[in-house]
C-alpha cells in the first residue's frame, strides 16, 4: 500500500478570511507573535501499487484536488508496506 | 426557444430556473439530469444554483467532472448560449469555461438579500435589452461569491469588455466589484446574483426577466438570419 498525503493551501495574495478569523481568535486568547494564519486541506489517498505514482498524483492534483487559480499543492508519497 | 436546465445532485434553484424560462418567459424548458450524456438540440443551457455535491472539495468542483459537463464543453465551443447562476457560475469556473475562481465571502457569512447591479456591458446576447450602466435589482444568495482572479486575467477581462455585471455596493469582496462575467466568445455568462428569482413583480423585482428576454430576442434574430 502506498500512502499519499496531499496538502492544499491558498496561494499567497489570495485572501483567506477563515485564516484571518482564526488569527483574531488566537490574539483573543492572548497568543502573541503570530504573524499570519492560513487554512488548508489535507487529502489522504491510498494506492495499491506505485506504478507511475508521481505522475498520477500530479495529474490528480491538477485536475481535481486543487484549483490552480487560487491554490498550491504539495504531496508526500510513502510506501506503507511493513518492513 | 428550447431551454435545458441541468440538474445536479444538490441543485436547488433548478425549479426557479425552469419556472423563469417556461412560465415567466413562456418558452420551452426541460430539466436534464447530470448523468445524461448529451445537451445537443437545445437552443440555450441554464446551469442553476444550489449546492451540487454538497459543495464538497470546492463549490462546483465535483459537478465539473460529471458526464453532462463533457457535452456542456462541446456546446460552449459550438456557440450555444450558456448561463450559469450562483453554483452554476462556480461550475463554469471549475470546468474552465470561464476564468477565475470564487472564494468565501470576505465576512465569512452567507448573504441573502437584494443587491443593485450595474449593467457594464449591454452588448451581449444576455443583456442587449438593458441600458448601458442600468441599475437593476437582483437578489444574491451565496456564501462563496467572492470573485477572484489574478491581475493579468483582470486586465484581460477589462480589455475584452468581459465584465458584464458589477455590484454597486460590493457585498462579498469580489475583485473590481465583479458580479458576472462572459467568455471571450460571448456565449457563456456566469453570475452570482439570481436573475431567475427576479422575473415577476410578485417576487419583488422583474429586472431579471430582461436577461431571459434578451436571450430570446437574440435567438430569434439568429434563427431568422439562418432561416
UniProtKB/TrEMBL annotation, chain A:
Q: What does the organism's lineage look like at the top?
A: Bacteria, Bacillati, Bacillota, Bacilli, Bacillales
Sequence intervals crossing the membrane: none
Q: What is its main location?
A: cytoplasm
Its subunit composition reads: Part of the FGAM synthase complex composed of 1 PurL, 1 PurQ and 2 PurS subunits.
Looking up HAMAP family in the UniProt record yields: PurS
Keyword Nucleotide-binding set for record: yes
Q: Which GO terms describe its biological process?
A: 'de novo' IMP biosynthetic process
Q: Per its UniProt entry, which superkingdom is the organism in?
A: Bacteria
EC number(s): the record gives 6.3.5.3
| UniProt keyword Lipid biosynthesis, yes or no | no
Q: What is this protein called?
A: Phosphoribosylformylglycinamidine synthase subunit PurS
Question: What keywords sit in the KW lines?
Answer: ATP-binding, Cytoplasm, Ligase, Nucleotide-binding, Purine biosynthesis
Concerning its family, UniProt says: Belongs to the PurS family.
Automatic annotation (TrEMBL), chain B:
Q: Name one GO biological process term.
A: 'de novo' IMP biosynthetic process
Residues annotated as the enzyme's active site = 86, 194, 196
GO (cellular component) term, any one: cytoplasm
**Which protein is depicted?**
Phosphoribosylformylglycinamidine synthase subunit PurQ
Q: Where in the cell is it found?
A: Cytoplasm
Q: Tell me which UniProt keywords the record has, alphabetically.
A: ATP-binding, Cytoplasm, Glutamine amidotransferase, Hydrolase, Ligase, Nucleotide-binding, Purine biosynthesis
User: Which SUPFAM superfamilies does this UniProt record tie to the protein?
Assistant: Class I glutamine amidotransferase-like
Top-level lineage group: Bacteria
UniProt-listed CDD domains: GATase1_FGAR_AT
Q: What is its main location?
A: cytoplasm
**Assembly and partners?**
Part of the FGAM synthase complex composed of 1 PurL, 1 PurQ and 2 PurS subunits.
- GO MF annotation list: ATP binding; glutaminase activity; phosphoribosylformylglycinamidine synthase activity
Function according to Swiss-Prot or TrEMBL = Part of the phosphoribosylformylglycinamidine synthase complex involved in the purines biosynthetic pathway. Catalyzes the ATP-dependent conversion of formylglycinamide ribonucleotide (FGAR) and glutamine to yield formylglycinamidine ribonucleotide (FGAM) and glutamate. The FGAM synthase complex is composed of three subunits. PurQ produces an ammonia molecule by converting glutamine to glutamate. PurL transfers the ammonia molecule to FGAR to form FGAM in an ATP-dependent manner.
Write the gene name.
purQ
UniProt pathway: Purine metabolism; IMP biosynthesis via de novo pathway; 5-amino-1-(5-phospho-D-ribosyl)imidazole from N(2)-formyl-N(1)-(5-phospho-D-ribosyl)glycinamide: step 1/2
Pfam families in the cross-refs: GATase_5
Any idea of its EC number? 6.3.5.3, 3.5.1.2
User: Which HAMAP family does the record cross-reference, listed alphabetically?
Assistant: PurQ
- Which chemical reaction does it catalyze? L-glutamine + H2O = L-glutamate + NH4(+); N(2)-formyl-N(1)-(5-phospho-beta-D-ribosyl)glycinamide + L-glutamine + ATP + H2O = 2-formamido-N(1)-(5-O-phospho-beta-D-ribosyl)acetamidine + L-glutamate + ADP + phosphate + H(+)
> What InterPro entries does the record point to?
Class_I_gatase-like, PRibForGlyAmidine_synth_PurQ
